[in-house]
Amino acid sequence: MKVSRGLLAAVLLAGIVAGCAPQQPPASVAPPVPQASAPADKLMEDVRILAADDMQGRLVGSEGGAKARAYLLGRLAEIGLAPALGGGLEHPFRTTRGGAPVTGVNLLGVISGTGGSDRALVLMAHYDHVGVRDGQIYNGADDNASGVAAVLAITASLKQQAPLHDVIVALVDGEEGGLSGVRALVDDPAFKPLLDRTVLAVNLDMVSRSDKNELYTAGGFRFPALKPYLQDVAAAAPVTLKLGHDDPAMGKDDWTSQSDHMAFHQIGKPWVYFGVEDHPDYHQPTDDFAAIPEDFFRRSARTVELAVRTFDRRLETIAAESGGGSN
Ligand SMILES: [Zn+2]
């Protein structure tokens, strides 16, 4: 049995726009997005703070990166995310930047599922960006303060309404310039038990801007077992959710290698990516908070939460269909 529209609508109601009024729109019509009123709703504030000039573009191994991390650790503590490995939420790794060795730090935690299964989902977004170049700060509001803020909002929602399966939350460093943070994570023997339990990794990278109100989700071509679930999510999503950008025949428009999900792809682990089409501000100093349309971004974040909750509910079936995740 696939997830019914009724269930999807119910899941949607548990959305991340805390304090929103219940609504049951027909799947074919985008519902109005209510104004956020609850103080817990920090979606826009998180992007604004992460993409502010004092974060200096959040380059891996930089002071700005450390400042962003300190802010995120505060937010994760506020949400109440538990560490996923021994110790705290910080997962440091060594990498290089311009040939020089630096330390990057992923942030890693887990929300425990209530369903009694060992299987797990990974929910991730990279928080680093490209820093300062020629005196100009690259604020990386869409890339990828937006994905991080959406992950925080979804994490807060999952804390309020627990998932069936463990959700491993990863805010990843060092994506820009080589996916070093996620590679350090999947290569870490300490992470292997969690990786073995992981059925599916959900990656958000650039989810806040679209002139056409379109969000893409990739992964359904590479992992056809996921496609029916993605189609169900698309039918109920409050944005136009398009499946695509993971067919190798698309050449450079195949985004399989373009973000952190690549590290999961390379070990044969199913993944789903959410993101928008490239825009003129992509990797420019103009990728600023002010350019983010709040309405679309809220719809986009709600769409990803809908997907996460759908995957969570169907994870046992997805595991059986895709061969992912031991139990
Ligand atoms: Zn990015």
Give an overview in words.
The protein is an alpha/beta fold and about 325 residues long. It has one domain (about 55-320): Zn peptidases (Aminopeptidase, 3-Layer(aba) Sandwich), CATH 3.40.630. The chain has helices at about 5-15, 45-50, 65-80, 140-160, 180-185, 190-195, 225-235, 260-265, 295-315, 315-320, and strands spanning about 80-85, 90-95, 100-110, 120-125, 130-135, 135, 165-170, 200-205, 215-220, 240-245, 270-275. The strands form two sheets. Strands 1, 2, 3, 4, 7, 8, 9, 10 and 11 form a nine-stranded mixed beta sheet that branches. Helix 4 (about 140-160) packs across helix 9 and helix 7 packs across helix 9 (about 295-315). The model is unreliable at about 1-40 (pLDDT under 50). The structure holds zinc ion (ZN). Zinc ion binds near residues 126 and 259.
Keyword list:
disordered N terminus; binds zinc ion; two-stranded antiparallel sheet; globular; alpha/beta; about 325 residues; 10 helices
What topology emerges from the helices and strands here?
Elements: H1 5-13, H2 43-50, H3 63-79, E1 82-83, E2 90-97, E3 100-111, E4 120-126, E5 132-133, E6 136-137, H4 141-160, E7 166-172, H5 180-187, H6 192-197, E8 198-204, E9 214-218, H7 227-236, E10 240-243, H8 261-265, E11 271-275, H9 294-313, H10 315-322
Parallel strand pairs: 4-7, 4-8, 8-11, 9-10
Antiparallel strand pairs: 1-3, 2-3, 3-7, 5-6, 9-11
Helix pairs in contact: 1-7, 2-4, 4-9, 7-9
The structure holds zinc ion.
The site of zinc ion (ZN) has 7 residues, from helix 4.
